[in-house]
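Tokens as discussed.
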């Protein structure tokens, strides 16, 4: 098994109408090429099951604006909502202010099923060789993690034609459920966002090309801060007071504090139980 780690990555999110997608795609056509690993222009389905503590520690980190925060999850990549997963990953997505780091490891469906039944289950020796699995195991025991919400949506992904570190995704039909089994029960899903709205994400390392940003700005998209995890949890848990997602901080507005090393900051919170 192998670990994958993404550091010094940034995300800008936009809210768009489904009716505007053809115009948006036409405006970005000369900048983007379809992600071949994501079934090209046809896309794929992200099926994520998030974990949290009994007091919703990770949800509160998001809503209270913590600079350093985490989202433990299992993610299945499916060609259609009810198809068998083509790949399954255990992921720890961390954020330090606006900077994102993601640590993940491929896992088998048997381990995924065991963790969803009991997050305190002991992974196998080979599985524990990966850092992401060790860190999840540590967090599960420390915070008594349990699956709390399912998020399912269709994603069409693109890479920059001239900027290999740029990735653009169109996430539509974003739905959620309190049911956290590996199979998708369609009648248990409700819309996180209205079905005629989607989230467009611009992801990049270190710097965003000015020409590409200028093209995005010319499309008149509404920049937002939006967490599929937090909003889906609010939609499916009546005991949580919903909070409308906020518009992003204007360009040039002061930060809470300067951004340091995300890897160091997140590592301090993840601190694996084994060296």
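Sequence:
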């Amino acid at each position: 098994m192998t670990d994958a780690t993404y550091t010094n990555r940034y995300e800008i999110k936009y809210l768009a109408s489904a009716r505007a997608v053809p115009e948006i795609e036409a405006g970005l056509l000369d900048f983007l090429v379809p992600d071949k690993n994501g079934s090209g222009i046809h896309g794929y389905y992200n099926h994520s099951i998030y974990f949290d503590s009994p007091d919703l520690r990770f949800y509160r980190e998001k809503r209270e604006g913590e600079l350093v925060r985490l989202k433990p999850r299992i993610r299945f990549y499916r060609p259609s909502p009810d198809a068998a997963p083509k790949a399954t990953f255990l992921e720890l997505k961390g954020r330090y202010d606006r900077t994102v780091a993601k640590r993940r490891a491929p896992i088998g469906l048997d381990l995924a099923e065991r963790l969803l039944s009991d997050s305190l289950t002991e992974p196998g020796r080979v599985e524990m060789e990966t850092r992401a699995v060790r860190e999840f195991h540590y967090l599960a025991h420390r915070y008594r993690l349990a699956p709390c919400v399912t998020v399912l949506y269709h994603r069409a992904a693109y890479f920059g034609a001239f900027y290999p570190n740029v990735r653009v995704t169109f996430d539509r039909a974003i739905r959620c459920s309190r049911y956290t089994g590996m199979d998708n029960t369609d009648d248990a899903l409700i819309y996180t966002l209205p079905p005629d709205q989607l989230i467009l994400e611009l992801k990049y390392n270190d710097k965003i090309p000015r020409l590409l940003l200028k093209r995005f700005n010319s499309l008149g998209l509404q920049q937002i801060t939006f967490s599929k995890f937090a909003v889906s949890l609010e939609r499916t848990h009546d005991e949580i007071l919903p909070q409308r997602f906020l518009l992003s901080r204007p360009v040039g507005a002061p930060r809470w504090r300067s951004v340091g090393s995300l890897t160091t900051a997140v590592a301090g919170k993840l601190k694996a139980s084994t060296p």
